[in-house]
Design a protein that fits this description.
This protein is α+β, with helices and mostly antiparallel strands. The chain has helices spanning 5-20, 35-46, 49-53, 120-129, 138-141, and strands at residues 57-66, 71-80, 84-90, 96-101, 106-109, 115-117, 144-153, 156-164, 171-176, 182-191, 194-208, 211-221, 227-236. The protein is globular, with a radius of gyration of 17 Å.
Length: 249
């Protein structure tokens, strides 16, 4: 993320699609906080900068439900500083899908033995999205941040911030008005040679090693790729990570 940000945003959605083939309501708030206030409040809500910097990597084990396929499957999400991430999705007897970004290169490994390199556009976005401490580096990663005011997302009032990087696609992050934490993000992704709008929601935050982590990650758009991940176990600062971001093919 932001935490597990981009597992849900493009990598996991694209991987699922490759192997298988809520509206906004503006409101009029009394006072809209500045971009700096929203970002600082988010850091405090997550546990604070000191606690966040103590964590160097994360492994999250859980289940993913995909309504389009009527399936619930095991999934492992891994991430490490400064900007590496990997996903393993077990498709039962069919095998495992791995989607990996090692900080420079990215690829998807399919059960049939293929290794599919990520395209230039996704790699450009990944270098921003995969920042392990993204919540501390929004202003560094996104030189232009616009306050869009209060909107309604998944039944919650949120402050919407449109963030534009030097290179790559802009993202709109939604910060919960009550809690200060990220409730979701709208982005653009390329899937199967199509440009689609994506929306990922984050909820059910729980404290793990002093930092708040969402235990539910839901991709609601595009609907044909919708999924919900429920995190069951999290480990931080894992020592044995040599195989996380390497190809197995």
């Amino acid at each position: 993320m932001i935490l597990f940000s981009r597992f849900g945003k493009t990598a996991l959605a694209a991987a699922i699609i490759s192997v298988s083939a809520g509206g906004l309501i503006a409101e009029q708030p009394a006072k809209i906080p500045s971009v700096d206030v929203v970002l600082e409040r988010n850091i405090k809500a997550l546990g604070g900068k000191k606690a966040m910097l103590k964590i160097k990597n994360r492994e999250a084990v859980g289940k993913i439900k995909m309504p389009a396929f009527g399936a619930e499957l095991p999934v492992i999400l891994r991430a490490a500083a400064p900007n590496r991430e990997a996903m393993e999705l077990t498709l039962g007897e069919a095998g495992v899908v791995r989607d990996v970004f090692d900080g420079n290169k990215g690829w998807t490994e399919t059960p049939d033995g293929n290794v599919i390199p990520k395209k230039e556009r996704e790699l450009i976005n990944k270098k921003t999205e995969a920042d392990f401490h993204a919540d501390l580096n929004y202003k560094k990663n996104y030189p232009k941040i616009e306050q869009l005011g209060v909107q309604k997302v998944a039944g919650r009032d949120v402050y919407a911030l449109k963030m534009t990087p030097k290179r790559g696609d802009a993202d709109t992050f939604f910060f919960d008005v009550k809690t200060g934490m990220v409730a979701g993000v709208d982005s653009t992704a390329e899937m199967q040679n199509m440009e689609v709008k994506t929306r990922v929601l984050f909820r059910d935050y729980k404290k793990v090693d002093g930092v708040m982590i969402p235990s539910t990650i839901e991709l609601t758009e595009p609907k044909f790729a919708a999924f919900t991940i429920t995190i069951e176990k999290i480990r931080h600062n894992v020592k044995q990570t040599a195989s996380w971001f390497k190809t197995t093919k």
